[in-house]
Amino acid sequence: MSEEKKRPRSPVSRPLVALGASSGFLAGFTALAVAELVAGVVRPQASPLVAVGGAAIDRTPAVVKDWAIRSFGTNDKLVLQIGMLVVLSGIALALGIVALRYRRIGAGIVLALGALGAVAAMSRPDSTSSTDALPSVVGAVAGAAVLYLLAGRLLASRQAPHDGEERHGAVGAGWDRRGFVITATAAAAASTGAGVLGRSLGRSSGRAAAASRDSIAVPAPGSPAPPAPRAAQVRVAGVSPFVTPTEDFYRVDTALVVPKVDAGKWRLRIHGTGVRRPLTVSFDDLLARELIERHITLTCVSNEVGGPYVGNARWIGVRLADLLEECGVVPPSKGGRADQLVARSVDGMTIGSPVEDVMDGRDAMLALGMNGAPLPFEHGFPVRMLVPGLYGYVSACKWIEDIELTTFDAYDAYWVRRDWSREAPVKTQSRIDTPKPFARPKAGTVMVAGVAWAQSRGIDRVEVRVDDGPWQEAALAAEDTRDTWRQWSFPWRATHGGHTLTVRATDRTGQVQTGKRTRTVPDGASGRHSVVVTVE
């Protein structure tokens, strides 16, 4: 017996290693597919990919997150999920090889990974039930079982040899081909079916929300937005439209799964420090109130100088200051106890806004509609918050369900805990839309044009510089309001050769856009946008 224990293990043949790795991959696929099916029953956000991905986003340093947005744009979440699948595939392949020697250890590691997924799901801010652990747990059990069974089929050659003869050579010389193929095929087919059914259930979970959105007819506002001046749009090809089409409006958030909220079940609670009369309102309650409609330009703090994360839309909603006054809230300048409004979304995001800014007379609102239609799901349906003049991370809570009045000293919102500033007014910025970087225009008159913004202050002047020459004033398009961007154009007499075009704006306070370059962290990028062109 002791000699048998000391006998060295037979080497594993290369073909068997490949089959073992394939077994691990199939076991991983099974785990994720079954987890997807269970998440379709529980809730899509409980999927291990979503839960672990959300946890990864929460723990990612601000500079890394900013780099991801800068590098991948609105595809940053897709890149994260693809990266997670690549890593999980590598782990699964390795576990399949490990299981050729240590079946129970391989299966045990799969179960351990499932436990980690369960912990991640239950620790998410929007988790309200222990059932969120089920997708990870059930998926891990299914994956471990498949790995254990397939490894057993491959290790059939390690059974005791017949007729008392000791078998030598590589492990796998006599593996159960038929059993392996049948088990693998059945597992692959069942897992594929589970994954497809899970996705279908996940989509169906949002059907009630979609139906509620389709049934909404946003009423005419009591305070409609004046028509934008026709001259607000410059007649230069390549300039962004004055009103950004909804489908082109930027989206930057942390949600791996877009929340689908039924407007009929939605409620908003207003409470906290200095709230003398707490209030809970429904979607219909908001529709019954006087609605305001305004053109407002929103800007993401992750927008680099000259970046695309800025857009102008026609929003309709309820004036937020009116609701707060109804609750007895008083701004700090008038002796109010709360200086921070913390908005919470259904997915657990928290965004802190200065109470003073919300109640200083600007058109801060709870928006119900965008460009003449109910909000799209990805932009916050049924209700989102927005405050002109503030970057989105301190004002634009999507899928909002709770407003708590507190102080900046008492509570740090999500982004503040990740090294962003507590307060972040939008900086005066401008962008060259045309010509594009590295364009090759013909010599002669070339129209240089773009947009400038300084929400809540307004744009007073835009200037263009060619190479190291003097600043020359551009022609401004008509202004809609101080809360919208303003287009500009400049006829440049282009000469042959390479040139650098730079733009700067001046707001109504007299503040000139700084030339000092800073990154987006902690309170938005600064600097002047420039493009290099070659005139032919």
Task: Give a quick precis of the structure.
The protein is about 30% helix and about 20% strand.
Radius of gyration: 29 Å
Q: Report helical residue fraction.
A: 25-40%
Largest sheet: 5 strands, mixed
Catalogue the unreliable spans.
1-7, 159-172
Q: Which percent range describes the beta-strand content?
A: 15-25%
**Mean pLDDT across residues:** 93
Distance between the termini: 87 Å
Order of helices and strands: HHHHHHHHHEEHEEHEEHEEEEEEEEEEEE
In one word, what is the shape?
Answer: globular
Our count of helices gives 12
Order of the strands making up the biggest sheet: 2-1-10-5-6
Q: In terms of structural class, how would the helical and strand content be classed? A: alpha+beta
Overall number of strands: 18
Tell me what the structure shows.
By secondary structure, this protein is of the alpha+beta class. The protein is 32% helix and 21% strand. It is built from twelve helices and 18 strands. The strands form four sheets. The protein has a five-stranded mixed beta sheet with strand order 2-1-10-5-6. A hairpin with a 6-residue loop joins strand 1 (267-272) and strand 2. It is globular. The protein starts with a helix and ends with a strand. The model is unreliable at 1-7 and 159-172 (pLDDT under 50).
